[in-house]
Amino acid sequence: MRGLVGVDLGGTKTAAALVEDGGVLRRALAPTPAQDGPDAVLALVARLVSEVADGAPYGLGVGTAGVVDPATGTVTTATDHLRGWAGTPVRDRLAGLLGLAPDTVVVANDAHAHALAEARVGAGRGHRTVLVVAAGTGVGGALVEGGRVLVGAHGAGGHLGHVPSAAAAGLPCRCGRTGHLEAVASGEGLAALASRYGVTVRDGREVAALAASGDRQAGRALDTAAAALGEAVGGWLGALDPDVVVLTGGMTGAGERWWRGVRDAAARTALPVAASTPLVPALLGSDSGVVGAALLSERAASGSVAVR
């Protein structure tokens, strides 16, 4: 079956799916050989794509961690989650492995793919300007305007976790700088914050569970993380003025206390005219990455583009 295929390439697992009209018809999933180098990762992607497409797809979209040059599909910057990933010409390598024309393959940042899916067929459907904020292991997202992801001059648009945050002053960020929002508002940041408050945890989910059970220090950490993200959202409401903000990622499962903290901080920080902008949960769950990547490939296959 030939069709549009989307790939969500992460440091832990890689998913591929055959997508039609925003719905998943067939999917394949496997652990990512993240520390085995680009050759192993790309070979896995090619195998999963062939499984779901029964051969060469009509169009292929890939969402991957890192900053991606939208013109060439090359990863320009990446963390050590995927060893040696920076500098990998993902588009051209996959086109060669699968026998595709390079212009039918689109590679984008994974948060951009997730955002496009939520804006087009998820919680942002029907709105022209959608800001998607992904708070999970890290913090990212994208602004989608008229069905197009605005990626910026260097493909780095939407790295929302790398704005300054007072709550993160002096704290290290994975990007190598300090004081960034991601250091407190991500799952990893929340766990680190709770540890500094004397709470022994492995991840942000444990912090949220302890906070829900009444642990005061875990609650303090959760409140700090939620307020930091909400204050940033309030600033983005004034700077970007979207119709709606869609929140996605693992942190959105932290419970009503977290949601209330984010919404309250956003409302008190935003310009009054934008303070009532709705903040809503994402709808597509784990399928958003593959669906968004397939939507990218939809436009490439038809000769246009879905990013700028």
TrEMBL record:
Keyword terms of this UniProt record: Kinase, Transferase
Family: Belongs to the ROK (NagC/XylR) family.
Pfam name, any one: ROK
Keyword flag Zinc: no
InterPro entries: ATPase_NBD (IPR043129), ROK (IPR000600)
Protein name: Glucokinase
GO molecular function: kinase activity
Cited SUPFAM superfamilies: Actin-like ATPase domain
UniProt organism field: Lapillicoccus jejuensis
Domain of life: Bacteria
